[in-house]
């Protein structure tokens, strides 16, 4: 995942960033709330990890500003402010989760993973595109290079999930939870089977392949 961490304590920030990078994530680390806000606004992140007490722009203001601009990236507040009122304030500001310092890195990692799997309040788009592929969410019509594609309901849902997260790898677990509403692995090849069927309709008749397999990670649809 691509993560943004904003933490003004240099030692704590370095510790968090190092641990997350060791797990294979891409981490952008900031000590200043204003710089983090600019990055979060212009960049594409899977999860934001935000301290509340920050220089320039505090954590609550940062998140409120993002939510006001329509940014729905999941936010985990990581802070020493741990009273009930503090937690309520963080969640009301637009935070999705709240972890109080001192913390165990294992719990931080688990909470970040859980947030990345949580269905987000995605923008109410009506038209999704990738290259010459187009999906109209109102008419439920999918075309590629002007040719209409006949998709089954589950295939449509799977393609919609990938298009909404265009360019981002989606793991098997993410797809099971979002498309099949399963919070457990059924130990079947249901995802692989539907990806194969979707490729037969979306990619095989055309020159360019849009649905990619990222070995050992999952799937993504290219722009």
Automatic annotation (TrEMBL):
<dbReference type="InterPro" id="IPR011006">
    <property type="entry name" value="CheY-like_superfamily"/>
</dbReference>
<dbReference type="Pfam" id="PF00072">
    <property type="entry name" value="Response_reg"/>
</dbReference>
<feature type="domain" description="OmpR/PhoB-type">
    <location>
        <begin position="125"/>
        <end position="223"/>
    </location>
</feature>
<dbReference type="InterPro" id="IPR016032">
    <property type="entry name" value="Sig_transdc_resp-reg_C-effctor"/>
</dbReference>
<feature type="domain" description="Response regulatory">
    <location>
        <begin position="2"/>
        <end position="116"/>
    </location>
</feature>
<dbReference type="Pfam" id="PF00486">
    <property type="entry name" value="Trans_reg_C"/>
</dbReference>
<dbReference type="InterPro" id="IPR001789">
    <property type="entry name" value="Sig_transdc_resp-reg_receiver"/>
</dbReference>
<dbReference type="InterPro" id="IPR036388">
    <property type="entry name" value="WH-like_DNA-bd_sf"/>
</dbReference>
<protein>
    <submittedName>
        <fullName>Winged helix-turn-helix domain-containing protein</fullName>
    </submittedName>
</protein>
<feature type="DNA-binding region" description="OmpR/PhoB-type">
    <location>
        <begin position="125"/>
        <end position="223"/>
    </location>
</feature>
<feature type="modified residue" description="4-aspartylphosphate">
    <location>
        <position position="51"/>
    </location>
</feature>
<keyword id="KW-0238">DNA-binding</keyword>
<dbReference type="InterPro" id="IPR001867">
    <property type="entry name" value="OmpR/PhoB-type_DNA-bd"/>
</dbReference>
<dbReference type="InterPro" id="IPR039420">
    <property type="entry name" value="WalR-like"/>
</dbReference>
<keyword id="KW-0597">Phosphoprotein</keyword>
């Amino acid at each position: 995942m691509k993560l943004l961490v904003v933490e003004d304590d240099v030692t704590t920030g370095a510790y968090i960033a190092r641990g997350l990078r060791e797990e294979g994530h891409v981490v952008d680390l900031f000590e200043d709330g204003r710089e983090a806000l600019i990055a979060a606004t212009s960049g594409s992140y899977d999860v934001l990890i935000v301290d509340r007490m920050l220089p320039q722009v505090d954590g609550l203001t940062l998140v409120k500003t993002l939510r006001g601009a329509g940014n729905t990236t999941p936010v985990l507040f990581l802070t020493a402010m741990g009273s009930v009122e503090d937690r309520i304030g963080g969640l009301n500001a637009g935070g999705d989760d709240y972890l109080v310092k001192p913390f165990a890195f294992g719990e931080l990692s688990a909470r970040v993973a859980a947030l990345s799997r949580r269905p987000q309040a995605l923008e109410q788009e009506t038209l999704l595109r990738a290259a010459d592929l187009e999906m109209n969410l109102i008419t439920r019509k999918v075309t590629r290079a002007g040719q209409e594609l006949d998709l089954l309901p589950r295939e449509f849902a799977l393609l919609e999930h990938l298009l909404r997260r265009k360019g981002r790898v989606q793991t098997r677990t993410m797809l099971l939870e979002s498309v099949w509403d399963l919070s457990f692995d059924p130990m079947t090849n249901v995802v692989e089977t539907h990806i194969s069927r979707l490729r037969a309709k979306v990619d095989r008749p055309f020159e360019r392949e849009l649905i990619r397999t990222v070995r050992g990670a999952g799937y993504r649809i290219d722009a």
